[in-house]
Amino acid sequence: MKKQWVAGGLGIILTASILLSGCSSSTEQLNKKSDGAGGGTKTLTFWRAGTDPAENAYWKRVISDFEAKHQGVKVAYSEVPFGSDMETKLNAAYASGTSPDVLSYTLASLAQRANLGQYEPLETYTSKWADKSDMMESVVDTGTYKGKLYGLGFIPDPRVLLWRKDLFKAAGLDPEKPPANWDELTQYAEKLTKKDGATTTMAGFGIPTATGWTLWQSFVLQNGGKIIDPETNTPLFDSPESIEATQYLIDMVKKGITIPNDSTKSNENLFPNGKAAIAYDSPAAFTNLQKDHPELNGQIGVSGPISRKMKSTFAGMRLLFMSSQSKQKDLAFEFMQTVMTKEETWARYKELGTPVVRKSLKDDYIKENPVMNGAIFDAVTYGQGAAKVTYSGKMYEFISLNLEEAYYGKKTGEQAMKDAAAQLTKELPNLISK
């Protein structure tokens, strides 16, 4: 397996400087835009969140190909770390009118920046783009906010079900049969859990006890619940469906089925560190565990999400956005369109291992690796990412904190969700962008 990807969060920090790493050394170089008169060069600025070497090599190849096909065009490429670094650069760039023409960033940015008018709606361009009909519906929906398409999803980050076949065998379970529903998940997890006295040493099922909203959301959706009504800004995570899903996870934590952890911290994430028998995690966790423990080659199972009332899992997404400040929007979309072609989508999979986002590539993708790629395609099809509201970060903070209190016995699932909903409702007047 090839290197996978990660996604970052949002910060709200302003700065007067925009010093970026990458192919250019200054803001002036990054944002120089010539009309090409007199044989000059048109410069298209492209920023991407992330600094990993594999993706750096991928983008340099894509840019080189694009420039070769578009004589007189130069793509000024820069990388910025996820999180507050990217937020700082973007806030300053939009404030000074020097934002990039095209941006590769996360779903978490969509609602906030579309609401601020910083991302350009793409219908004018996609209405003439024949390939749009080949995009997976879930991917198009992910990039849509308030009825308008703002982002083209091109790197999904789904959570698949992973399990240790060797531990299944030792516990007398069929290593080729993962749990199919919540009842089986509980039964399997109890058999797979190992303890030293009262201390759990092997989690039967990995449940993040801190910053645990992504797994929690998957179970709420599987139970037919919803997170938020974005039209009325009404919290829905205190519904009976949500409370039932919350209590289900709490009951497993109380049984000692998991080990306390924060899965956003690589040193604590249980499955890739060999401390969980079953987990919902990214395909990268599969890769990392086999890399660190080659003796487990062939001993790790993978499948799409289980279901209760419906099938669902968490699926983040990296998207391409066009800045509303761009002075060369046609060229910007041409670059975005190039990245989204069928040929480039397949090349990205071969070079980076990223899931495909085009329906016409499904059969070829699954044929390459039937088990893993089939599970990933299933997860992308049925997965949902973070709620597309401007205050999603704060909402999930309230949910995670109250969930953590419930995991440690300070609240019931019902009280945790009602408290989180009340806290969000109280803060909403200050959180909703006018």
From TrEMBL:
UniProtKB keywords: Signal
Signal sequence residues: 1-21
Pfam families per the UniProt record, alphabetical: SBP_bac_8 (PF13416)
InterPro entries: Bact_solute-bd_prot1, SBP
CDD domains in alphabetical order: PBP2_UgpB
Recorded superkingdom: Bacteria
Protein name (Swiss-Prot/TrEMBL): ABC transporter substrate-binding protein
Organism: Paenibacillus chondroitinus
